Amino acid sequence: MSTIEEYDCIVIGAGVQGSFTACQLAKQSRKTLLLEQFVLPHTRGSSHGQTRIIRKAYMQDFYTHMMEECYELWAQLEREAGIKLFRQTGLLVMGPENSESYQLIKNTLQKNKVPMAILNHDNFCQHIPNVNLAVGNGAVVDLTAGVLYADRALKTVQGQFQKLGGVIRDKEKVIDIKPGPVVTVSTSAGVYRANRVVITAGPWANRLLAHTGLQLPLEVVKINVCYWKEKVPGSYDVKKRFPCFLLTEGEETKDHIYGLPSNEYPGLMKICYHMGSETDPDQRDKQTDRSDIDILKRFIARCFPGLVPEPAVVESCLYTLTPDDHFVLDCHPSYSNIVIGAGFSGHGFKFGPIIGKLLCELSLGEVPSYDLSPFRIRRFQDKTKSAL
After folding, report:
1. pLDDT tens digits, residue range 273-310?
2. Among 205, 309, 332, 367, which is least packed, fewest CB within 10 Å?
3. pTM of the prediction?
4. What single string gives the DSSP state of each residue in 319-339?
């Protein structure tokens, strides 16, 4: 029989949240194992792709507060690794001037004194060429926002973890978790024991939590990640200081539409619909719904006249949604030495360093650096009770 390897902590899932958590645990001198079911790097989950938006523009104060420190932690990782992970571009937020979502974002930026610019219909075209601002829409720019180089960031934090003595085992699917004062984790290749386990398994979270008698209200959806060709090369280029953007709601939809300047594919701009269709993460390509692309085509024809309104490249990404779109950052209700990070709802990547810090604090039994009440599991149970 093969020997059982012992660790202080095991982190299951080597996406951005798990990798930052493992790195934080290793910084605290904990002997840490990071497990990943697929060969790294891979494109099967929610952390792949070359770019993500980083921003302080949120409807809720608590996210804006967390992002203050998060920017510092991203900069710290850049310094430690000597690698550029962030490019400041600004984030253009557009939406109906009198709508709740647009007003909340604008108010949160102002209240938290985030560097910003308010645009109007008179000066909009001067600052943002090749974009049509709809009548009745407001526009504000979060000047601190920009682009994170996602693939590079993930590889960097995993490298830092290994430099600290951390162990990564990829191509090891977890097949069983036995809770207890010491948790036993069995994989397709071995058996491991640790005093503490952190589950950051993205779309596969509930499959792992089933071993612990817990299921969370998580919905996995497939997002079509679309790239749109510039009619005139360079019109929306990051090098020409074109910003990222977020449309809070519009003619076509009540859901967000977001975009990043032309960068990873020369001459192509990434614009996506912030919602998808439910899917099985192991059979994602069975999901062929393209209704989101039809919405985007109409939006681009109306607002981005410099783009061909037909996607040139379509990739995919998985979101794991909670009912309120807020994360799950909590200890297991029955086993305090099992910590859960889940339900990042398509907006978690930028928070990676701070989520890693918080999950590390929870795992070590420390008081969390932030109020985690918006992220506790009991909020789902409380809502269930109130509905009875």
Report:
1. 998 888 888 887 887 888 899 999 999 999 999 999 99
2. 367
3. 0.95
4. EEE-TTS--EEEE-SS-TTEE
